[in-house]
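The protein record filed here:
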Amino acid sequence: MNKALVYSTTIGACLLFSVMLLTAASAVSQPADRQVFLDTVLSIINEAEYTTLITVGEDGFPRARTVKPSGADDDLTIWVATRPQTRKVHQISHNPKVELHYIADDYKSYVSIMGLARLHSSPKVAREHDFFPRALRDKLWPGFPNEYQLFEIKPVWIEALGRGIKPDRYTWKPQSLCIDAAHCPKKP
């Protein structure tokens, strides 16, 4: 048999097998059970007192800071309080795309929520979403509800790892869930 034919057939079979593995790997990154995935996500979010809020600066670089968020609403909306003078207000007014990154106390589990942030500055919304302990709130916002501004963060894409949620074994890509298809990556 022709050595070149054997060699090219072997290469072709290897390439086909690689494509099949990568296709299977991509499918694995999606949660097999949506409810189990969401329950795990909520357990990590609701156990966390703090999270990292990541915005994009005008220079295009990410900006990260620790914030004290609300728990997740029924639709997974998360609220973050701030003052009008902060950098995050300016950054989000120019680019509403944000990420909240939660790490569990075991340091082996995490949730990343990519979402769109919307600023609310009305006293009515401030009173409805006052999730700070009163003593801390009075210290940070002495004239509450004045200067108590809120970002309403609506998730569009969620990634999670740990607590039984395993990454893809070839790419290490975490399992993910698209909430708003208009804003999810084309190839998760």
